[in-house]
Specification:
The protein is 73% helix and 0% strand. It has 70 residues and is mainly alpha-helical.
């Protein structure tokens, strides 16, 4: 379908949006494109999970609830 093709993005763009979403709100169009991409891309879903895990680890470390691993 031509409409879906117009909103599809590549992994490079998806990873950029995943990182960007940590610092600022995505537009409705960006969120829709990212959600569509994550629906079929195992690699970008894994990247998003890794980013979540890193963010959680940093927050725990900043709060002093866990020391960094050496």
């Amino acid at each position: 379908d031509f409409g879906v093709y117009m909103i599809r993005i590549h992994c490079k763009k998806a990873s950029h949006l995943i990182v960007q979403s940590r610092y600022q709100a995505l537009t409705v169009k960006e969120r829709a494109r990212l959600r569509l991409h994550l629906g079929f891309c195992h690699y970008c879903r894994a990247f998003k999970r890794q980013m979540n895990a890193i963010e959680q680890s940093v927050e725990q470390w900043k709060d002093g609830s866990e020391s960094p691993k050496k």
